Amino acid sequence: MGCVHGRPSTTSPAAPVTSSRRRDHPVVSLPQQEGVDSSDAAAAPAEAGAAPEQQADQKPEKPAQVKRERRSRSSRSAAAAAHAEVRLGGSFANKARGEQVAAGWPAWLSAVAGEAINGWTPRRADSFEKIDKIGQGTYSNVYKARDSLSGKIVALKKVRFDNLEPESVRFMAREILILRRLDHPNVVKLDGLVTSRMSCSLYLVFDYMVHDLAGLAASPDIKFTLPQVKCYVHQLLSGLEHCHNRGVLHRDIKGSNLLLDNNGVLKIADFGLASFFDPNHKQPMTSRVVTLWYRPPELLLGATDYGVGVDLWSAGCILAELLAGKPIMPGRTEVEQLHKIFKLCGSPTEEYWKKSKLPHATIFKPQQPYKRRIADTFKDFPQSALRLIETLLAIDPADRLTATSALQSDFFTTEPHACEPSSLPQYPPSKEMDAKQRDEEARRFVTLKLTKFSLYFVFVVLVFVVLDSMYCHLCKKVVQVNMGCV
After folding, report:
1. Residue 20 has pLDDT above 90, yes or no
2. Which top-level enzyme class is recorded in the Swiss-Prot or TrEMBL entry (predicted)?
């Protein structure tokens, strides 16, 4: 199964001990577990081994022999200490895993994702009744379900694994760790986990949300007012502010991941692509994140060193989309998406190209620079909204500032102010999946109409051909009759 690599001892005598252990057992040192000073731990075996040697030979030793003997004692002492350290670490790791398995967690999950489930108890799968499938992603399916113990309606996110591959399990464990770190009204809260020792699947339990923003925005009967847009965007930025302050990048902000309840409360959901980050100790990250229409230019250009700006760009796309009533940059490919970004937001300056040193810069750098056209394209937007969109959709991520600064923009301080979530209209349940089903039904309806029309047209043509053939045949008969008469 999967492994969390324990650090082997640097002393050669202990290496065989380390290699014979399961690699997912972390090595825990004596001072960490027992409060024993490391010098005392090493001294005890050394003194125990010295007594027999002193009794065996009372003759004075030469200086070189004394040095060799001291080195030998030192290495044996270090080996003994390292051996004890490995055994102690393994025992504590085994104990923790044993407790988790006894609590009902499957061994494959405890071995790879012990930290993520630490302190929790799994729920039984038969304690939930599935009602309907409400969402589907690359790595998961989401179901509406009823908690049979409380009667509460919940959302169950079933995580799929690639044959229980350790990397796949670790990927899921990171999402659980991130969700456990976050606690904010505008961030979805993980209520529990459903699995069993005999199961190879895992469900994440969340509060059920009746809408997502993409589903509402796609509804032909819904048109958001400016106070409603401000209400939604303020909640989005508040949730992002909390995530960023806790060292979390969401990396997939889009309408279908922004859930809404009947009280108008918006919650950021689906942290499957989220990652921890530390601006003071940056680590390279993948650029293959964020859904294409909401992906910032630096990721399309292959950046691996990025920060909160990726989420703020997506938030700017959401704000413009809510005001425009449709997605503002719906590219079909990465090349087309980057072209749409340059046409709307302008191409990067020469200074930015030189400073960023992005991997794909030479491939995608336009031959001629594009001018920024946000104000011209969205001239009907309020000026305060345009100023915020200009900031969030800055080509240079350093110019996008932070979620905190966005919340302080005049977009939220000028009239009309954001409405209270509780005053938002009560919409019929709507999610992006529902919108897709409506579109699919509309396409089927149009296809059916076209098919019927095509069949009718073919029938008319056939009738015309038959009638024309009969007419020609009749004319020939008439001519023949007349010729005979003559």
Report:
1. no
2. transferase
Which pair of tokens denotes residue 227?
Answer: 């106070």
**What's the CA gap between 214 and 271, in Å, rounded?**
17
Nearest to 358 by CA among 289, 287, 278: 287
Q: Provide the 8-state DSSP code for 187.
A: B
Contact yes or no for 416/226 (Cβ under 8 A): yes
Tell me the CATH architecture of domain 211-430: Orthogonal Bundle (1.10)
Q: What pLDDT, on the 0 to 100 scale, is given for residue 338?
A: 95
Question: 0.85 cut: is pTM over it?
Answer: no
Q: Would you kindly state where each structural domain of the chain is located, as residue ranges?
A: 12-53+63-100, 114-207, 211-430, 439-486
Residue 236 CA, chain-centre distance (Å), reads 16
- Cα gap 378→374, rounded to integer Å: 6
Q: Taking all residues of the chain, what is their mean pLDDT, rounded to a whole number?
A: 79
**Residues tagged active-site:** 252
Name the residue with higher pLDDT: 325 or 71. Answer: 325
Q: Which of helix, strand or coil describes residue 10?
A: coil
Binding residues for ATP: 157
Say whether pLDDT at 292 is over 90.
Answer: yes
Residues β-bridged to residue 133: 143
The binding site comprises 157
What's the rounded Cα separation, in Å, for the pair 368 and 394? 19
What is the rounded distance in angstroms from the CA atom of residue 154 to the CA atom of residue 144?
A: 6
